[in-house]
Amino acid sequence: MKSKKLKRFLALVLAAVMSLTACSGSSGTQSSTESGSASVPENATYRETLHIAVTQQAPSLDLHKNSSLIARQICDGTVWEKLVTLNSKAEAVPELAEKYEATNDGKTLTFTLRKGVKFHDGSEMTADDVVASMNRWIEGFSSAGTMVGDARFVKVDDYTVKIDGKASLILLPAMIAGAAQPASITTAAACKNEDTNGFLKDYIGTGPYKFSEWKQDQYIKLERFDDYVAYGTKGTEMDGWSGYKAAPTKILQFDLVADQATESAGLEAGQYDVVFNVSYDDYARLESNPNLTTVSSQMGTIALIPNHKQGIASNQYFRTAVNTALDYDELLTASYGKAYELGSSYMDAGQPFWASEAGKENYNQKDLEKAKKILTDNGYKGEPFTILVATLNKMDNMGIAIKSQLEKIGIPVKLTVVDWATLTEYRKDPTKFDMYITTFAEVPVPSLKLYYGAAYPGWSDDAKLQTLFKEMTSAPTLEEAKTKWDELQGYSWEYLPIICPGHYMGMFAWQKNVTGINMYSGGPKFWNAGIVES
Amino acid sequence: MQKFIVRRLLSVIPVLFVVSVVIFTLLKMVPGSPAATLLGDLATADDIAKLEEKMGLNRPLVEQYFIWIGNMFHGDFGISTAGGEPVASVVFSHVKPTISLALYALIIASVIAIPMGMLAAKNKGTGIDHGVTVLSLAGISLPSFLFGLFLMLIFAVKLHFFPVSGYVEISRGLWPHIKSLTLPAVALGFMNAALMMRMTRSAMLEVLGSDYIRMAKAKGVRNFVITTKHALRNSLVTIITMIGQSAVQMLAGAAVIESLFAIPGLGQLMVNSIGRRDYYVIQAIVLLIALFNVLINMLVDLLYGVADPRVRAT
Predict the structure, then answer these.
(1) Domain B87-265+289-313: which CATH number of 1.10.357.10, 1.20.1290.10, 1.10.3720.10, 1.20.120.1200
(2) A421 contacts in chain B (CB < 8 Å)
(3) Which residues of B touch A6 (CB under 8 A)?
(4) How far is B173 from chain A (nearest CA, A)?
(5) Domain boundaries, chain B
(6) Treating both helix axes as pointing N-terminal to C-terminal, what angle do A478-495 and A316-325 enclose, rounded to 10 degrees?
(7) Distance (Å, rounded) from C-alpha A482 to C-alpha A478?
(8) B153 and A24: CB-CB below 8 Å?
(9) What is the rounded distance in angstroms from the CA atom of residue B79 to the CA atom of residue B88?
(10) Backbone phi and psi for residue A468, each to the nearest 5 degrees, phi listed first
């Protein structure tokens, strides 16, 4: 009798749970890949706080010295602004500068500053602040340092600065506008006020939001800067990252939610307004929720970097055989599910000017027989091939897929699976790997592709590659630089400084009632974002 | 009693010394550098080396150890590489949520486990006993994150009774504070309740089978009095031990639940700090957990005396 009652009770509990779970699948189908509109309705009242869930914490918000993606997503263009920014064609257009000019040889760049721009501490931006900030950025960002050499920004007058290079600096504006370590402008005093590790103590920018509070492992809060001096035309759509920033929401709160499943659940429950880095396991469910908008966008390049200094991968024939054998679709599915796009262009979709098809005949060949022949013809004796891979973003799954594919052509693969911090240490040592797997965030110009540096782990110290790279970075015009880039990419698909299987996507979702999110590049931006209450 | 407490407190010193040497050495053996994680992927080897020099990481290990220990005696636990805050304030801000969560989970675990364990023991071999056994087995077998997700789906996403995640400080109101911790505390408490239930049941069974209980029954003492006054009191030593162990576990190892529910506690801080090789923070947390362990064990020993006069006498 008792057991019958117990069974009945358990059956009831089970039925209740099942009916609750079933409710989750009953919502209609809705999907969107549109960028959020940047226009702000006139006279609208907005909810005071926008809650944005992010899965990672930034190590620092000092963007001069740190390339953390999440720090950029939170602060670039929001707290910090730059002399120039990117428009939708990935061109550098004025932001804190009124205009900029280059001499015919591209060696001198002169920036005329906007007048009356206010910092968050109330002071006005002048050439002294810009010179201090830009030179601090050059010192902290190796790619900028490599491009300008010994050249530094100097003050011409209170509202004009310039830089004189020994070679052409024609790619520098785009680098200032969109580098992964942004050339943020802060006050000259803030540049001097560093902590013991040399990072900024105060986050004082000129953007529409000022830094308010950072609770470690909890949230970062930005508050609207009421004295913000906007540029562009009110009420018009933004062009890329350029244009009028209205800051309709008083507080932007970036809540740290380390678990992606929790983040998605929080969005469905209405606790968060926007979520970053949605896992592809959750994405389909969120896509079918009629109350949500889902957006995915290309965020960067996936790279398999062979060791050119020593070991089996330092042989050209071996790299060619590996590239000939691999099925990129299968590799990327293993790590990214559906969150990737195939494509032989080393540059990402956000930079149409630099898109190139050069070398595409060597991309994604999946030709096992040809690969085997290359190995046999070159006397390959079955030497082991060590792949170093981190568990970050399920990249170890890609390592397993590569192992499985290469073993079909007789290459014995040894996988070294570590955490990300260990990978960054091990890749410095050429005895520890024959190839490692990593990703590179989107960059505005190919001169920021780190793997062309002969000293970058992978060590592509090839004379022709280095010459082509130098010719591209020192070209006097953008058109000539593009021609050289085509040539460089074509050669890259032969020499293989990296094997580029494709591009990874970022997946984002937000409540249907959130307006004004900018989705140009590198994830959502919230300058014009808000929830209209009335 | 005072001598006992002083002796136990003094025993903390060698424990902390040994733990400090072990954790310091282990961390230095692990590949990866806080400078590299702080600067990000675009930093060159030269940039990293310069920052490591600034951080003092290129000094001999023994020197680094004594600098760390020496600074700690002056109240300086170092600077966290994430955010550049002093380690003491970072750790302190993360201890509060962990203590709140652990206390709440312990209360939930005790409230579930002790009565159910008693009930099972009293009704040995019946449906109730089997039900409690099944429940405790389920609690032990079910991964806490899965149970947490289940609770989240039902009580936060569907019913909106509690927030999905996040932590509200007690200064912003007791009820919002309790609400923010309820689901993680239930998820954490349930697993511990399962273990405590089994221990309570077996301790109670042992006592209920003893001669003096039979004597009490023969004298016509009421069942309720026998169970609560005689049997439970004599099982308390086992139960207190179990509660002490659970408390240490919850303080030190709630990382999964904290991460799932975005509670900014010690567990989450530990996991994040390992990822970014934030040496000073990891070292401080390990020392703090060692200290918690010693203090909780001392408290448990003192409670033995309260529960059982025979222990007090020895």
Answers:
(1) 1.10.3720.10
(2) 31-33, 36-37, 275-277
(3) 127, 131
(4) 18
(5) 87-265+289-313
(6) 90
(7) 6
(8) yes
(9) 8
(10) -60, -40
List the single residue in B82, B160, B261 with the smallest CB-CB distance to A216: B82
Band the pLDDT of A329: cuts 50, 70, 90: very high
Taking 50 as the threshold, does the pLDDT of residue A106 lie above it? yes
pTM: 0.86
- Residue A195 near residue B54, CB atoms below 8 Å: no
Contact A265 B154 (CB under 8 A): no
C-beta of residue A73 within 8 angstroms of C-beta of residue A54? yes
Which tens digit of pLDDT belongs to each residue from B166-181? Answer: 999 999 999 999 999 9
Residues in chain B within 8 Å Cβ distance of A422: 30-32
Helix, strand or coil for residue A98?
Answer: strand
Residue A294 phi, psi dihedral angles, 5° rounding: -115, 140
- Amino acid at residue number B197: M
The distance from CA A529 to its chain's CA centroid, rounded to whole angstroms, is 21
Q: Do B42 and A450 count as a contact with CB atoms less than 8 A apart?
A: yes
CB–CB contact A68 B40 (8 Å): yes
Nearest to A252 by CA among A50, A73, A75, A530: A50
From the list B38, B127, B262, the residue facing A60 with the nearest CB is: B38
pLDDT of residue A22: 37
Q: B129: burial class by Cβ within 10 Å (0-12, 13-18, 19+)?
A: middle
Shortest Cα distance, chain A CAs vs residue B37, angstroms: 7
Contact between chains at A422 and B44 (C-beta distance less than 8 A): no
Amino acid at A349: A
Q: Please determine, for residue A166, whether its predicted confidence score (pLDDT) is greater than 50.
A: yes
Looking at A432-441, B143-152, B232-241, which range is the least confident one? B232-241
- B94 contacts on A by Cβ (under 8 Å): 216-217
Is the CB of residue A59 less than 8 Å from the CB of residue A70? no
